[in-house]
């Protein structure tokens, strides 16, 4: 590809980049694709013969489209939440659940959840600068702020994404290993591995909204909790370790949208207790962040 190629050829070469930018800004494959198509339409209506950096021009256009979509989204109620007892968590708007799962995994479910908690301008500034290396002078023009203000937007977003661990780094890493082992065993349906990572007297508590009708809000004992976990093991494919109120916990986020959060108490190298939070008000009150790589 060179500067003599037509707009369609040059645009198609940029499509993967534009889709990646839009998905991280919007968290929805369908909406990201819509934003890419709108960018193409705007390119067709614009004379770009004098544009030296077409990639930069397209990135600016799609960022402004995404910013408008994020602002419109924040002004309307969120889509209804699917019933939690259904383990497959169907995708939204006819989207392919497998495609959504793969895209969410490529970015990180915890990151998508935390990005969704940012303001539209914070999200755009953070994604552009921290994830794609766009300089702040360009970001300032996109969000219609000064360069100093754009830097502050990204800084606030960065602090929210990283969070503040409540325990030292060594202990945080040890706790994460325990939680990751729990998730791996849950995804694989491995009863033996679950029993190995659960304390003999482990306690599981859950909001009623996270359970089938009539299910007990509290269970005790490793075998009871492990067998119960296997029943709903399909949910583990949508789960990822995250920083929950400063400690290692779990978010369950199909399509990158928070549905459940688990607070986890760890003693030694085993899980002593965990609580499944599904109540929207309780979820909104949680301090969520991304664990260090």
Structural commentary:
The protein has 293 residues and is an alpha+beta fold. The chain folds into two domains: 7-74 and 84-162, Up-down Bundle (Butyryl-CoA Dehydrogenase, subunit A, domain 3), CATH 1.20.140.160; 169-289, Nuclear Transport Factor 2, Chain: A (Roll). 53% of the residues lie in helices and 14% in strands. The protein has a seven-stranded mixed beta sheet, with helices on both faces. α1 runs antiparallel to α2 and α3 packs across α7. The longest helix has 21 residues, at 54-74. This is Sigma-70 family RNA polymerase sigma factor. Residues 76-97 are annotated as: Disordered. One of its GO terms (biological process) is DNA-templated transcription initiation.
Fourth-tier CATH superfamily name of the largest domain: PhyR, sigma-like (SL) domain
Please indicate the count of domains. 2
Tell me the number of helical segments per DSSP (H or I, 4 or more residues long).
12
SSE succession: HHHHHHHHHHEEHEEEEHE
Structural class: alpha+beta
Question: What about the largest sheet?
Answer: 7 strands, mixed
CATH class membership of the largest domain: Mainly Alpha
Q: What's the shape?
A: elongated
Q: Give the overall average pLDDT.
A: 89
Gyration radius from CA atoms, angstroms: 21 Å
What is the terminal-to-terminal distance? 36 Å
Tell me the strand percentage band: 5-15%
Overall strand count: 7
Strand arrangement, major sheet: 2-1-6-5-4-3-7
Helix content: 40-55%
Low-confidence parts: 80-94
CATH topology of the largest domain: Butyryl-CoA Dehydrogenase, subunit A, domain 3
Corresponding CATH architecture of the largest domain: Up-down Bundle
Family: Belongs to the sigma-70 factor family. ECF subfamily.
Protein name: Sigma-70 family RNA polymerase sigma factor
Pfam family, one: Sigma70_r4_2
Domain RNA polymerase sigma factor 70 region 4 type: 110-158
């Amino acid at each position: 590809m060179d500067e003599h190629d037509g707009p369609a050829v040059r645009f198609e070469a940029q499509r993967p980049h534009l889709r990646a930018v839009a998905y991280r800004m919007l968290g929805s494959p369908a909406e990201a694709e819509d934003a890419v198509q709108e960018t193409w339409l705007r390119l067709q209506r614009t004379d770009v013969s004098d544009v030296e950096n077409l990639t930069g021009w397209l990135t600016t256009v799609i960022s402004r489209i995404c910013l408008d979509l994020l602002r419109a989204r924040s002004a309307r109620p969120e889509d209804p939440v699917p019933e939690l007892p259904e383990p497959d968590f169907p995708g939204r708007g006819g989207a392919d659940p497998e495609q959504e799962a793969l895209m969410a995994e490529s970015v990180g479910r915890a990151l998508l959840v935390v990005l969704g908690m940012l303001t539209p301008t914070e999200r755009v500034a953070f994604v552009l600068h921290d994830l794609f290396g766009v300089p702040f002078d360009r970001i300032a023009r996109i969000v219609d702020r000064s360069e100093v203000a754009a830097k502050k937007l990204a800084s606030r977003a960065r602090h929210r994404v990283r969070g503040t661990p409540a325990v030292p780094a060594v202990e945080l890493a040890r706790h994460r290993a325990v939680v990751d082992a729990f998730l791996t065993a849950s995804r694989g349906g491995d009863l033996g591995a679950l029993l190995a990572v659960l304390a003999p007297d482990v306690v599981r508590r859950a909001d009623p909204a996270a359970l089938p009708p009539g299910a007990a809000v509290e269970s005790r004992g490793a075998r009871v909790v492990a067998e119960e976990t296997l029943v709903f093991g399909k949910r583990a494919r949508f789960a990822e370790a995250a920083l929950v109120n400063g400690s290692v916990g779990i978010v369950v986020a199909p399509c990158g949208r928070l549905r459940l959060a688990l607070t986890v108490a760890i003693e030694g190298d085993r899980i002593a207790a965990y609580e499944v939070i599904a109540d929207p008000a309780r979820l909104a009150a949680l301090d969520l962040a991304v664990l260090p790589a």
